[in-house]
Amino acid sequence: MGQKSPRSNNKSEHIVKIPHSSGVRLVAGVVIINFVVYLLVGQMAGGYPAHWGKEAAVPSMLLILFSLLTVLPALIITRQRTYGLAVTEALRLSEKKYHDLFVNAPIGIFQRRLEGSYIDFNNVIMEQFQCRTPEDFVAHYSDVANRWVEPEELRQFNKLLLENGAVRDFNLKTQLCDGTIKWFSLYAILDSTKLYFNGFAVDITERKRAEEELNHYREHLESLVKDRTAELALAVTAAEAANQAKSEFLANMSHEMRTPLNAVVGMTTMLLRSDLDATQRRYAETVNYASDILLLQIDNLLDISRIEEGKLEIESSPFDLADTVAKIFDIFSFGAEQKGVTLELQLDPDLSLNLTGDPGRLSQIMVNLLGNAVKFTDQGFVRLHISAEAADEHHAVLRFAVTDSGIGIAPDKLAHIFEPFTQADSSTTRKYGGTGLGLAISKKLVHLMGGEIGVDSVVGTGSTFWFVLPLGKQPAEPLYGQVNRAGAPVPELLLTEGKHRGHLLLAEDDPVNQQVAVSYLERLGYSFDIVENGHEVLQALTERDYDLVLMDFMMSEMGGLEATAMIRDPLFQVRNRTVPIVALTARATVGDREYCLAAGMSDYLTKPLRLEALAATLAKWLPQAPPAVTIGAADDTGTSEQLSDDRELIELFCQEASGYIAALERCLTEDDAAGVEHHAHKLVGAARAIGARRVADLGAEMEQLGIRREMAEARQRQQQLASAFQSLVEILTLRAE
Ligand code: ADP
Fold first, then answer.
1. How far is CA 701 from CA 671, 674, 710, in A?
2. Alpha-carbon span 511 to 519, nearest angstrom
3. What pTM was estimated for this model as a whole?
4. CB count, 10 Å around CB of 373?
5. Is any atom of ligand 1 closer than 6 Å to the C-beta of 434?
């Protein structure tokens, strides 16, 4: 333990007080003594002042000299004494000031040697450190290595002090004499002798406590934030997984729904092309209408997830607007007619019809709007009006307006009507059904195509849903034949039932889908073989030449992608590695197309398979029947026929067309106008396929008469038609010989 040299805390007075007047008294004393000496000397010399004479001169001089020798030193001593007293007093005052400061300062002050012992300290520091006596304090805090302060901290403190000559705000945690723990901030200045330092201690326990509390809160907050962030990250991951699962689910559902729908659409198409009486035709048309609407709903469901993922792509291809609109009206004419609602189309006369854009998406918007209009209108009309808002040589801005005389929409619902899953009210939903997706998707699509969409509506009077779209204009000539993409016109000839060149391989394991594809291929006149998985495809391609493979995407054992990869693989020995492969898939998600093409497939068809799309795709990849030749035969109108020289096709035509002629006869006898329309239509298709114009034209007239139910006129025409057909058969027979 170090030594204490206490001082000022019990301080006594050091300076003896000497009155200021003592010097004056000394001088006065000396002067009086001088006067007495003067009188004595005068007595000895004969008395003053009468006998003061020459004899007194010596004693007087001595006296004066004596006076000078005594009074002067007295004066000097007095002066010096007065000065010494003043200095002592100043020192005393300074000492007192320092002492007062030392004692009364609100902070602990101490002087301490570097080796650890204390020179001095004030009472405050004892109070601060809860020590009852100075000895207590000294006992606790003298030793550098004592247990009340961390030795390392003290070492650090001394190091700083020696290095810098001072230490500022050195925070130290220590145990007080009474055992409590407190924080102090130390300030220290090293004395010039470097033997001791003056120190100041400020109790900062409260500040530290507040800091600790703050730290605690901060840490708590940080851990809360961390927890929440982790929870959020988990939630985001879960949401992403859920979203992914939803997309997967939608894709799978779409597949699951499209597969049976494929059968419905395919079989209905076949049914409508067969011999049906009027009632059967109605039924089939109802099924057809319903499956078209169902397909639209599935597309909407798929599209909403694609839009959410930002994966929806807009195409740009040439299309014929009239053709697109006609196909859409085909869908709704039946539903509207059943409700007694008139379906009207108004195309402005100056409208360009040969456009470029995304006809599929455009159709989807129109189908959504027209579908709603028909759905929410119980009487009156639904009208589609298309006009040009602006146009130049290469561009046109078109306005599409679908107006109905239906139930209308309340003003407060109008603002939200384009949001997903929004329906005007629950009673409407109960009565009319719906998903609340159609308008949301239409809006997204219009925006993706750079357009605007809106609605005006009056409850009880009707609504007008409109959209404005910028589209491209095609060069003057429409590009028929080059345009075989979805929604684009397909040459009539391709749809015609008949015989086409090319031997195909159909790979499809689902029996229903297989049947649909088979019936379409038969209708289109292609010959083909059927296999049911990728292994069988490879086997077939090793054994014989095929002109094209129609390959299902998902098959058991080996799917379409895998099989394609092997066909294209140079190490694998198929007869024709470059054979065109067209994928058939029910998934119809954006990525699938890329997958197919990346895997080496040549093209892509979605299910439900459409006859038109299949025909167009096959036409694109397969060599067509050779061009028709002019045979110089003239019929009774004098028109040259451009008859095909494909013998198989001609043969097939002769068989089928005579069937149609016979069916027409029967329908005319039975007064069945719908039957007349149907069989005449069939005959027209077949006749056009071989280039028999005369029969095709007469057939078309007959079809119109059937539509207009002008049966008397039709009977007269039948004669003409039958004889034209007869002469055609003769020409064909002659040519064959
Ligand atoms: P859905 O028709 O499948 O419910 P939509 O998004 O197409 O979904 O339409 C949302 C809602 O807007 C409908 O439920 C209906 O309440 C209202 N609506 C849309 N079109 C019309 C219309 N032409 N007339 C009256 N209400 C309409």
1. 17, 14, 11
2. 12
3. 0.42
4. 26
5. yes
Instruction: Evaluate: CB of 373 within 6 angstroms of ligand 1.
Output: yes
Pocket lining: 406 vs ligand 1, CB cutoff 6 Å: yes
Rounded Cα–Cα distance for residues 600 and 578 (Å) = 9
Residues 6+ positions from 617 with CB-CB distance below 8 Å: 484, 582, 603, 605
What is the b/e burial string over 107-139, where b = at least 16 CB atoms within 10 angstroms of the residue's CB? ebbbbbbeebbbbbbbbbbbebbbbeebeebbb
> Whole-number mean pLDDT of the chain?
79
In the predicted structure, residue 430 carries a pLDDT above the cut 60: no
Q: Is 353 left (phi over 0), alpha (psi -120 to 50) or beta?
A: alpha
Q: How far apart are CA 293 and CA 338, in angstroms?
A: 15
Distance in angstroms between the alpha carbons of the first and the last residue of the chain: 139
Query: Residue 697: enclosing H or E segment and its boundaries?
Result: helix 693-707
Name the strand (E) or helix (H) holding 346. strand 341-347
Cβ atoms of residues 701 and 718 within 8 Å: no
Ligand 1 pocket mutation, candidates 378, 422, 423, criterion most atoms within 8 A of CB: 423
Does position 18 have pLDDT exceeding 60, yes or no?
Answer: no
Q: Give 328 Cα–ligand 1 centroid separation in angstroms.
A: 18
Q: Ligand 1, closest atom to CA 422?
A: 10
- Cβ neighbors of 169 (< 8 A, separation 6 or more) are 185, 186, 187
Q: Can you point out the beta strands (E) in 523-602?
A: 527-531, 548-552, 581-585
The secondary structure of the chain in percent helix, strand, coil, rounded to multiples of 5, reads 55, 15, 30
Mutate to test the pocket of ligand 1, among 293, 303, 372, 400 (most ligand atoms within 8 A of CB): 372
